[in-house]
Write the structure tokens for this entry.
Amino acid sequence: MTSSQPLPDISIDSSSLEALVRQTIGTESFAELSDLLPVLVRDLADVDWRVEQALGSQYSQLTEAARYACSTGGKRVRPLLMATMARALGATTTQPFLSLAAAFQLIHTASLVHDDVIDRADLRRGRPSMLRAYGTALAIVTGDYLFVRAFELAAEYPRSIILRRGDACAQLVEGEVLQESGLFDLAAGREHYLHVVERKTASIVAAGLASGAELSGAPESTVDAAATYGRSLGISFQIRDDLLDVYGDPDLLGKPQYADFRDGNPTLVAIETYARLDAKRQAEFERLFQLRRKRARHLIRMRELADAAGVREAIAMESETWAERAIRALEPIPAGPYRLLLERLARGSAQRRF
Ligand code: IPE
Ligand code: IPE
Ligand code: MG
Ligand code: MG
């Protein structure tokens, strides 16, 4: 693909946003929370709009690449959580939060663009990754560009919010570096894994929610609770993501299967598989895990060994345990439909298929 392809359409389609929110909340929960749906769809459409507004550059190639990266906006979990938290804390309008939510969504997208360069990933959100569509150099600078636009978008916010967001971005980068340092090393273990996940995924979710709480004037204890909720949900979300890498449907996920096995990324799936196998199969799994160039049959054999170790249920449960921790953190948030939705979003992220 070259940059002469038609400009992707990122016009806001509220019916698809509605379907997305319904899917994220889960149909079971949907009936009782259906009144909230139009409000949240409007919030997300507004965030999308702000993202789009932020992308313009003097150089049409850069604008086009940035639009490509943002055009299939993903699940919008981060802005959805931020809007729901703001409303749970009594905000009657989310206007003051929307640029901040757009900034977090842009940061997230930028991190995926760079992550795909690092992982050499072919697919993202069901389409060729930025890397494949525009090449490595443009993918890197476009990722940088999205980060910079994100910072600009939220320049007007209080200093504490800007600093918290900066710290979360630094943690995100630290998480990627830490992950890189443990590649092909099964002995890195669970503690290393949790350190990586807390930094590369949970930090941004926690910062988004804490900032939302702070902006709505909540006391410090509530801001802390929002951060704890976000951090636990982020860990749950990444554990589930790592499980889906092996046990998910790549068509639904829109990204390649077995990427972590292939890259020697010691996620919980690999760590727990190794820990639960007998010595002979442990040695086989380790040998395969450490291969720098794996073929499809190697990946399939690794999956068979994970099946034999019975890790699937255990890791699904671990993701749910973190979701329950997130829910417990909601205690200081006033009870009501939006808090209920925050609970459903935590459970939903631990059970999601995409
Ligand atoms: C993918 O995040 C990367 C992880 C942190 C697991 P999402 O699953 O939120 O990606 P999109 O935005 O919906 O594509
Ligand atoms: C996502 O991690 C990268 C960040 C959170 C920065 P992954 O590498 O697990 O995400 P996917 O699987 O590529 O979406
Ligand atoms: Mg990746
Ligand atoms: Mg992954």
In short: The CA atoms of residues 123 and 255 lie 5 Å apart.
